[in-house]
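2024-03-11 09:14:02 DEBUG pipeline.ingest accepted 1 chain
2024-03-11 09:14:02 DEBUG pipeline.ingest length=374
2024-03-11 09:14:03 DEBUG pipeline.predict start
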Amino acid sequence: MTPKRPAGADAFPNPTVEPFVTRPTEEGELYAALDLGTNSCRMLIARPKGSQFQVVDSFSKPVQLGHGLEASGRLSRSSMSRTVHALQVCKRKLEAHKVRHMRLVATEACRRARNSRDFMRMIRRETGLPIEVIGAEEEARLAVISCAPLVSRQTEQLLVVDIGGGSTELVWIDLEDAPLAERSRAIMRLADGFDKPQPGGARVVDWISVPLGVATLRDQFEDVEDDQGRFALMSWHFEEMLQNFAPYVNAGAPDDGFQIIGTSGTVTTVAASHLGLRRYDRTKVDGLTMTTAQIDRVIRDYLLLGPEGRRNDPRIGRERHALIMSGVAILQTLMRVWPTSKLSVADRGLREGILYSQMVRDGVLVPDSLNGVA
């Protein structure tokens, strides 16, 4: 498949089930967002609080929905069964919290699978949950919205990268016309669509959805036995998919006003490894800035560890170890291709974007304090 782009032109890194983290009961309606991806099923339940939201409960489980999809073009019975079991847990949580406002979405694996409609009927029959399959542009929009609070006031050109299990979304945004104090809010207003004009706001220069994520890229090269050779091939293949996406070429490479924000389990795992965290701490990772040299150093360490060493490394985890090298192949390629030596790390993504968009639509967030970082 070729990368998709518009006409005219992928939170939490812990791969195991997240614990039940119910907060004390407070006033305010609860909202839920569920992201059924190629590799994981993840959900957040939260209530609005000022310009942000407070997480009341969460769930994350690696269901490997897209396992074997590259070869067969179909979702397997075992992967669908695993996913339905995870969704049944999500349903119990939604019922326990009496959540009325929710949006539950599926992404690349369900977009591509020939038996996706049958699977949606199976989900409805077994769980009653209203899962909807969203398009690549909406997935990219939601990832961008989730990163809005991390946009610097000094940013004039922004690239948001979301590395998912089955696809990677890249969105290039021009913020030069947006007032400094309004740049974060200008990003939030992109919820209405990338092609909607915003005088004095954010302008999407170009975006692309590459049908390669950590799971699908790994699957394409799983027959290569040499660890370093496989990594090199994955990096080369991903770079080939980016040949026609270079929005800055005609205008010249941006300078200090350029910011790249990366959101995915890959990015947060690399950040945790860089910090030497043996126990993941979101407060230390979300918003962290890493240099290309620091990212390269972590990747070199992963390669030196080899498959067995990565499997036993607590910073990576036994579930993520099989996906981390395809993820960092994508990440290193992006840092090599784009004209910057720094990456802003976002521990947020589709679920957060869904929550923000629901709450903004209902007018339950206070927008004045969405000013971005200094």
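2024-03-11 09:14:41 DEBUG pipeline.report The longest helix spans residues 292-312.
2024-03-11 09:14:41 DEBUG pipeline.predict end
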